Amino acid sequence: MNLADLDATLGRVTVDELLTVYRQDLATRLAQLRAATTPDEVRHHAHGLRSGAASFGAMALADAARDVERGDGSLAAVEHAASALDAALATRLHH
């Protein structure tokens, strides 16, 4: 994830505040995707994950969520990408 452009535009403090909110949203959206029981719900929640991830340049998660949204991806791939992203966010936000 490359946040240098956002840092330069908005300032690191503001970006970190946005990332803190996004990190909470990520956990909520993952829970919603896990709980989805219909194809429409899966597509809807995968789309939300993809959009948020793409906004911050988290392309591994965006790509995995896009695949689930299209019906040819796996929740495991989304979970893996989300876990890696969460770890990266935790590292950034605790420094």
UniProtKB/TrEMBL annotation:
Biological processes annotated in GO: phosphorelay signal transduction system
Protein name: Hpt domain-containing protein
Domain HPt: 17-90
